[in-house]
């Protein structure tokens, strides 16, 4: 019984060709409907090519600084200083290297801070957030709501002063940009060159936002990476000034002590003690000041090495490249897609009819 069932389920090549021929003849009999669907698709595709706005893409490429340390004589000097317990800064760690840096570009904090950057549009200074809102005609809907009609995104405003509504709107803009407009990629892991693309239907917004985001991330990156070095430089600077004041005071003390012992009887050596003590202070402060100046110079070299940390290679230039759905492409896509969907619908309908019988 089981063998008979298997035999009945088998189909020969001849039967397969006959079934294909039946389906072909069936679709051929519906050629008018298929052609009509194709014509409708062509009209829709052509209409869409006229309606859809072009997409403008601003591209910026930058290279990361090598993270392998100072190298050469500077590396030896820093190592020698560290062996004596001297911290002159240097190296903010690899927390922002490689893929971590690409995620920094896409972070909400960086994108929202960039949206508050001032730009000049039609002779008026507005923020990028306001530019995005105006382009998408959001205020036409907000004017009907008293709570939303008074919301403004002024350039360089303090982020801490924002209300819940401000945060919500910025969150929506961030989601739209991070999902549909902002693309960061490192094309080759062997090459530390990263490409950032900003795409939108507003050429100026793509251009301004791309440059502003790179500038904002660059500032944050530099401040974070060089924070330790700057702190050390500040501390060393205060120490140098303090020791120099002490040295000047000791030098003046030696001069006063010498004045007090001028033509002093050689037998009265006790009276010379203040002068000797001040001379010791001068020698000690001189040695300390010399070492602090060396440390300060090493810290300056380290800070210069770490700034800037992002080297921009190519910046976006107006006019930006635009991607637009051409008329021919709209006709082909619209007609082809509509015809395919109609054929698929006819096949499903025929198949269901056969099952029902």
UniProtKB/TrEMBL annotation:
Q: Major place of localization?
A: membrane
| The UniProt record lists the keyword Cell membrane | yes
Q: Which UniProt keywords apply?
A: Cell membrane, Membrane, Transmembrane, Transmembrane helix
Location in the cell: Cell membrane
Which intervals hold domain Polysaccharide chain length determinant N-terminal? 9-114
InterPro entries per record: Bact_polysacc_biosynth/exp (IPR050445), LPS_length_determ_N (IPR003856)
Q: How does it sit in the membrane?
A: Multi-pass membrane protein
Q: What is this protein called?
A: Wzz/FepE/Etk N-terminal domain-containing protein
